[in-house]
From TrEMBL, chains A, B:
The keyword tRNA-binding does not apply. Residues 1-71 form the HTH merR-type domain. Gene3D superfamilies: 1.10.1660.10. Signal peptide: none annotated. InterPro entries: DNA-bd_dom_put_sf, MerR-type_HTH_dom, MerR_fam. One of its GO terms (molecular function) is DNA binding. Keywords: DNA-binding. Pfam families: MerR_1 (PF13411). The keyword DNA-binding applies. This is MerR HTH family regulatory protein. The lineage of its organism: Bacteria, Bacillati, Actinomycetota, Actinomycetes, Streptosporangiales.
């Protein structure tokens, strides 16, 4: 057990920020050992890591973080559903589309691709709409969105997830630790992949246009 | 040449939205053929595609879109620098770090990795800070951020970019068309990769936790 100053040192989060998270209900209160003193534990250190990952790396608004944390804390939710809650929180909102022919076709293409890949995805998952929207935009812009191109992205994604991300989850340990690792990994490795892609683009563009920084 | 109603049909953007883009200076004015009538061309159709991609798929604020469009329109800028402007616009802001030992180490690791990969990246590119931040966060969270893991993400990223993204740019056509394709590809394929990764995670999680939607 530790005092708030020790929690601050252990977590590298400043005391005023910790107090803000306590007021916002993101961090559970410490154990009150006297009228002016509360003690914190390992659980608080871990929870601060989760909040920082969602806030600083995931850039989620406080309201979304609160939802993710409620899911992490709800022991009746399966880990799979906690991940789903995190996914919904980090996903961009897909605007409702008129159920026109084009949208129906894009959505059918998204569902067909997921089915062909043999992926287990909830029929109601909003990620299906996100994929359909990307397919629709690419085709409206006249850019390649063939099954072959999409499949390349899909193969790369499943490769990274199964090789690195799912394996780093300590599923044999306490539920809370596993859930937190799952949620943090979702956010942080997503950021890694995104920045790597932009670095790769800058490098590929430099080559195409004959620019060197060496 | 076409009237605003035809531009709306050709671009699938409603007339009030077109007028809004005109007022915001995102879309260049049409050619005034009488006091009450302006004519639009292919250039306006293409520009509307670019705006929609940045706004709806990239979710950039209007101010950022204005910067990207100014770069696209500036014929003195090389295409490589226009891409850089687009990259900076879609990148999350990396907060300034205290130049402490940990940050210096993470940044050196990021630079070392980019160097080892032989990538051509501007020494001042903010993406270097983004990568350093991701490395720092992963190591503070006790999650794997070894060179090996990062290299897997890097290889995947460069593979997708060189196989699909750079090749879809019509670099032999007019500059404006090439630049617009470059910028749109950056934003839209980034979205495709991001949603594929979350779909793959949902599927991998369903398998690990024994859930089937079949």
């Amino acid at each position: 057990m530790m005092r708030i100053s020790q929690l601050s040192t252990a977590s590298r989060v400043p005391i005023p920020t910790i107090k803000y998270y306590l007021r916002e209900g993101l961090l559970p209160a410490g154990e009150q050992t006297s009228a002016t003193r509360a003690e914190y534990g390992e659980r608080h250190v871990r929870r601060l890591r989760l909040i920082r990952a969602l806030l600083e790396v995931g850039r989620l608004p406080i309201a979304s973080i609160r939802k993710v944390i409620a899911a992490v804390d709800d022991e009746n939710l399966s880990m799979h559903h906690v991940l789903g809650t995190a996914h919904y929180a980090i996903a961009p909102v897909v605007e409702l589309h008129a159920a026109d022919e084009e949208w129906t076709r894009a959505r059918a293409e998204a569902d067909g691709l997921i089915g062909d890949l043999g992926w287990q995805v909830d029929p109601d998952a909003p990620t299906r709409d996100e994929l359909a929207q990307a397919i629709l935009t690419l085709s409206q812009l006249g850019m390649p969105a063939t099954g072959e191109v999409l499949r390349s992205y899909a193969e790369v994604a499943i490769g990274l997830v199964t090789e690195h991300e799912i394996n780093s989850i300590p599923i044999d340990g306490p539920r809370e630790a596993a859930v937190e690792a799952l949620v943090i990994g979702t956010v942080v490795y997503g950021r890694v992949l995104d920045v790597m892609r932009r670095l790769a683009q800058e490098s590929a563009s430099a080559r195409v246009f004959g620019i060197s920084y060496d």
